What we know:
Elements: E1 4-8, H1 17-29, E2 35-39, E3 75-79, H2 80-85, E4 99-101, H3 103-110, E5 115-118
Pfam families: DsrE
InterPro entries: DsrEFH-like, Sulphur_relay_DsrE/F-like, Sulphur_relay_TusC/DsrF
Protein name: tRNA 2-thiouridine synthesizing protein C
Amino acid sequence: xxxxxxxxxxxxxxxxxxxxxxxxxxxxxxxxxxxxxxxxxxxxxxxxxxxxxxxxxxxxxxxxxxxxxxxxxxxxxxxxxxxxxxxxxxxxxxxxxxxxxxxxxxxxxxxxxxxxxxx
Length: 119
């Protein structure tokens, strides 16, 4: 089966894109073992644990990202520059296991995947 990379590059809760991406990711994980997950740009906000989406009447799907380990998805990366630009620390990421990498390294990793899907 093809290797698949999922890129989360939009902020959560402003649209259904992030939730749909997570649903697609978990569905694919049941069928494939070669999956990578990348958080870039505004997408790094998916990793922040102290969000209150109920205030804007949105569903809290962010905690579902903790299931990645349960689904044996180990290749989870976040752009270091995106974190720094937005002032997000490792403590704010709420225990989701991600590997911070510079953008150039993320691009190298992405080049190894057959299919890339962005949300």
